[in-house]
Design brief:
By secondary structure, the chain is mostly helical. 70% of the residues lie in helices and 0% in strands. The protein has one domain. The longest helix has 26 residues. The radius of gyration is 19 Å and the shape is globular.
Length: 277
């Protein structure tokens, strides 16, 4: 079935995008603009929406501590422009991909994958998806490996906007979504809490609130109700993302997944994303 194939395809594609958030090269490009690591990440991902205030970043990114966002972005747009940060992000991922894959980026597999991913990205509807809409307004790169990365980024933001809508509909707040995620054991609390800037006190309060609802155990572990809720949110998120994958169909999704899998697997096996294959 296409929904299952599309989910598998997305999971295979995601590391190809996520490299930009962990590789040293993008961070170096942000530092050259005078941006800290946190400011570089937050500004580079939000720059496609223009010089929006920190409140908009808090709302659209959803899972970050508002205090971290406000502190990191304070004065950023008086120092650099969104166009400079977008260019730095693209330059950084370009260098990172070339370091990992070299001449393989010029191969026919990347060209075919870029064409397929672009079809999916351009089919994704923008209504109600502010982060996706911002990134969709950017010009497409020329090089096939960057077309592929930009397309995967669009698909990531499209799905992410839908995921936020599903969390809201389920009554799961920003920090609660992280606690619920951590309870499933897929990604550890330490990584999620540090990456998003939440204090121990805030994490414990969110855990207590979810425990009262039976969605996590008092110690932050999983419960049947919590697993069922999160599975339902993920399933609905996939359903909302499906319009992007319809033009490819099962065969196109399967082919795209096969083409990108070697690259994503290699990225994961470096350990840079925090887990191994």
């Amino acid at each position: 079935m296409l929904p299952i194939v599309a989910r598998k395809t997305w999971r295979t594609l995601e590391p190809f995008h996520s490299l930009v958030n962990f590789a040293a090269e993008p961070e170096d490009c942000y530092a050259a603009l005078g941006l800290s690591r946190s400011a570089g990440y937050l500004a580079s991902r939000s720059a496609a929406m223009g010089t929006v205030p920190a409140e908009v970043v808090v709302a659209t990114f959803y899972g970050f501590d508002p205090a971290l966002v406000h502190q990191a972005l304070a004065g950023v747009w008086s120092v650099v422009s969104p166009e400079q940060v977008v260019a730095a992000r693209l330059a950084g991922i370009d260098v990172a991909l070339h370091r990992l894959f070299g001449t393989a980026l010029a191969g026919p597999e990347v060209q075919e994958a870029a064409a397929l991913a672009r079809v999916a990205a351009e089919a994704a509807p923008a209504a109600g998806r502010p982060l996706f809409a911002g990134h969709a307004s950017l010009a497409w790169p020329d090089e096939p490996h960057l077309v592929l990365w930009h397309a995967v980024t669009l698909l990531r933001e499209h799905r992410g906007d839908g995921h936020v809508a599903c969390l809201l509909a389920a009554g799961v707040g920003p920090l609660e979504s992280l606690v619920l995620h951590a309870s499933q054991g897929e990604v550890g609390r330490r990584f999620l809490q540090a990456n998003r800037g939440w204090s121990d006190e805030a994490w414990q309060a969110a855990t207590a609130g979810l425990a009262e609802r039976g969605l996590v155990a008092p110690d932050g572990g999983s419960t049947d109700a919590g697993r069922a809720l999160r599975d339902g949110i993920e399933e609905r998120t996939d359903e909302l993302a499906l319009p992007a994958w319809l033009p490819l169909g099962e065969d196109g999704c399967t082919r795209l997944r096969a083409l990108v899998r070697p690259f994503s697997r290699a990225i994961v096996e470096t350990g840079i994303l925090g887990f191994t294959a």
